[in-house]
Amino acid sequence: MKSKKLFAILTLVAFMMTLVPAMAFGEDPVPEAANRYASSAVVDSTTVDATGEDFAEIIVYLFDAGNNKAVDQKVYIASSRGNSEKFYEENETDLLTEVKVGEVGTKVFESAMSSSGKVEINVASLIAGTATFAIGLEAPTTADGELYKYLMGISTDTITADTVRLVAFKDADGAKAGTKKVTFVASGVDEIIQDEVKDKNGDPNVDNMQSNGSDYYEIAFQVQNKANAGVSGEDVKFSVNKSGARLNKTTATTDAQGIVKVKVYSDKADEFLVKATCGKESKEVKVTFGAGTSFNITLVDDNNQKIALAQKNKEFEVKIADLRDNETIFENATEFKADMENIEVVTEPTGSDIKGKCSYDLNDDGDPVIEITEFKKEGDYVVRAALKNGKYVDIKFTVKEQGDIVALSLEYDEKSLMLNSESSTPTVKQLDADGISLDVSTGLEFFSSDLDKATVDVDGVVKATDESDYLGDVTISVVDTNEKKTASAVITICDYARALVFEAPKATVPGETAKVTVKAVDKKGNVVALGSDVKSIETAAWVISAPAGSSNSADFDSDFEKDLKQKGAGVLEVDCDKDGTVKVQVKAAVKYTGDTGNFALSGIVEVPFSKNAAPIDAVGANSLTMFIGNTAYVQDGVAKVTDVAPFIKDSRTFVAIRPVADAFGCEIGWNEATQTVTLTRTDITVTIVIGSKDITVTRNGVVETVTADVAAFIQNGRTVLPFRAIGNIFGATVNYDATTQSVSYAQQAQK
């Protein structure tokens, strides 16, 4: 009985099992279409950076009408901003496909197939702004895209939430909304790039503007965010690294593409860096201005030289400059000749006929010269070298048969040499009793007084030792084996240059240029000439701090690199228009032939500017005023008389030595044998050799050479000095008044 009852129960259970849904035992049901009311979407963030790489993650959960997961389903998404967003699959790499009807896009994008009842869509954008998204279950059937039209409120009478099978977005609190807003935020300034450089004619990427004050480059910068998209509405500041250039604006605001533009002009032939700064980001663009059209020509060498009749290939160095005194640098003699009109012989002795013996050329240093191959007659000459614009320079000299040679002169550009460096080739001249000179290069023998310190080759080039145990003065002698005459020059062998040191004015009035002496020194503080065998010197100076809101710049004078080679010291010019201190970083990278022994020097100099700059204590007189052509002069308000009146010669003013020495509180020394004048006082000694432009200045134990534009000479038995050069050496303020025809020094005004 029990067995029959058990059988019946088992039979009933087996029958009931056929009636229980399979899903009760964990098997998948037959898929049903997703139901828009049962499904929902969530967004992980409603604020995203507009970088194109940051995403808003949208997850759509699909359920059918029985609240079962809807698998093997696709969803559709549209943005109120059309195609401004990029829609990606879950891997954030593969883009969703825009649904097209025929060949026309619908601005609706189709997701990948759901395999688990869940679809993930990642949205990114490069365009800042707010987008509204809608999710639908119905694929577009028209070219307009029903889901996009619903989102934009178009044809709402025929396109509804039901027709597009809209899926609602659910918030964290459970609230639902048919659409969702996501804001893409500009990522901020990430970098500044050079967008474009054009010349004033609109031609891009050119390098042909002249430093005439009217030619310009227009530079376009773009401020970009992390996505390399332009950022609008950003304030940008402009600056230029050197004096001589100017900008048409110092600030600008980026346009809709993140673009700002600035024009740069120049009054100086040079290379400039124009910087755009926005926040912490900046970008520099290099532009180069060449010298303008040649405007003026001047004589560099001494005028009124006494030249021996036997002199061959006599050279007179000239300077060609544009209207703004930018020196023209010529690549070859052909370029030089192209600027010149002719060479005219204004005055010459009868029968001389030197016209055909005059020519234009570049000397060994690449400087332009007027060369005269030979002379036939004694007498006075005036040779005129003219530019095509009519500007000219007269070169005056006297040619005479040289008498008996009474002296020999030896002159080097360098007064000191660094270890392992070389001097230039010296100039050797034979002189007779009247000072008639003849350049000589043959029949000469050179000797060094100490071969451990320096050697000298057959051409007179001095090579300094590379051993620091042998430092100090070495005397280089030359013997003229034909005339049995000798001359000598002293060169100081110094250790390797270790640093840059600076001599800045105590203060400079804003708006004026502060001239800072930059010296290359060894470890003992000796000023070191870098030598003529330097292959190149790459120099840079930039302002690292300055008074707020000031216009400032730092730049080297045109002879800076040449002066470092020959003298070990040059001039840095610093400008500022406000009270305060300008701090300048200076660098000089030196390369030698063969790339051996290269080194770099750097340093920082602080240059103060003050409208109330205190005057220094004057040594000697506070002021001195002298009048052209008049022996009467005024010193500190007291009338005095000199035996030689100031005069103008070759466009330069000369003054007698005695009133100048008295005004500066100096004692005068004179060496007849060497034709040398010394001006000595407690703080400075100035050594002047008659006929030489090089003036030796010893101040606070430091020796340097200052090159004047003209040389001192003797007239009517009296020594006369170049007025401006001497005043500058003593640190006085120098002035020329054309109305009263007076020249003056003012020591108390020196800052």
Major pleated sheet:
7 strands, mixed
Strand content: over 45%
Average pLDDT score = 86
Overall domain count: 6
CATH superfamily annotation of the largest domain: Immunoglobulins
Radius of gyration: 43 Å
Number of strands: 60
First and last CA, distance: 132 Å
Element layout with pairings:
Blueprint: H1 2-17, E1 40-43, E2 47-49, E3 56-61, E4 76-79, E5 85-88, E6 97-101, E7 104-110, E8 118-125, E9 129-136, H2 146-151, E10 166-167, E11 169-170, E12 176-177, E13 180-185, E14 191-199, E15 209-210, E16 216-224, E17 235-240, E18 245-247, E19 251-253, E20 259-266, E21 270-278, E22 281-290, E23 296-299, E24 305-308, E25 314-321, H3 333-339, E26 340-347, E27 358-362, E28 368-372, E29 379-387, E30 392-400, E31 405-411, E32 416-418, E33 427-432, E34 437-439, E35 444-448, E36 454-456, E37 462-464, E38 472-480, E39 485-494, E40 499-503, E41 513-521, E42 534-545, E43 552-556, H4 560-566, E44 569-576, E45 580-592, E46 599-609, E47 623-627, E48 630-635, E49 638-641, E50 647-649, E51 652-656, H5 657-663, E52 667-671, E53 676-681, E54 684-689, E55 694-699, E56 702-707, E57 713-715, E58 718-722, H6 723-729, E59 733-737, E60 742-746
Parallel strand pairs: 2-13, 15-22, 24-30, 32-39
Antiparallel strand pairs: 1-3, 3-8, 4-7, 4-9, 5-8, 6-7, 9-10, 9-13, 11-12, 14-16, 16-20, 17-19, 17-21, 18-20, 21-22, 23-25, 25-28, 26-29, 27-28, 29-30, 31-33, 33-34, 35-38, 36-37, 38-39, 40-41, 41-44, 42-45, 43-44, 45-46, 47-48, 47-60, 48-49, 50-51, 51-58, 52-53, 53-54, 54-55, 55-56, 57-58, ...
